[in-house]
């Protein structure tokens, strides 16, 4: 049986599967929680099993982070 996508809940078939953060995703569903940028295995950071983009880290978008991410989550610069 094929797994369900962590974002949309639909079945993920092998040809469209991304296995990341201990979950399965459709390639199109694996995007940043904040800015919705499409992600891949080379340009994401994970926090609490959710994907975030490196752009938040590299560009220092602290105001953007504060605006769109629920309080209590760590700033992007602290993600590993």
Automatic annotation (TrEMBL):
SUPFAM superfamilies: Glucocorticoid receptor-like (DNA-binding domain). Residues 3-63 form the LIM zinc-binding domain. It comes from the Eukaryota. InterPro entries: LIM-SH3_domain_protein, Znf_LIM. PROSITE patterns: LIM_DOMAIN_1, LIM_DOMAIN_2. The keyword Lipid metabolism does not apply. GO terms for molecular function: actin filament binding; metal ion binding. One of its GO terms (cellular component) is focal adhesion. Keywords: LIM domain, Metal-binding, Repeat, Zinc. This is LIM zinc-binding domain-containing protein. It comes from Hirundo rustica rustica. The lineage of its organism: Eukaryota, Metazoa, Chordata, Craniata, Vertebrata.
């Amino acid at each position: 049986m094929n797994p369900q996508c962590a974002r949309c809940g639909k079945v993920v078939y092998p040809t469209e599967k991304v296995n990341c953060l201990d979950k399965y995703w459709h390639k199109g569903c694996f995007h940043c929680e904040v800015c919705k940028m499409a992600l891949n295995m080379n340009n994401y950071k994970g926090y609490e099993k959710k994907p975030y983009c490196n752009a938040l880290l590299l560009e220092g978008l602290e105001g953007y982070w504060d605006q769109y991410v629920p309080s209590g989550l760590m700033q992007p610069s602290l993600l590993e």
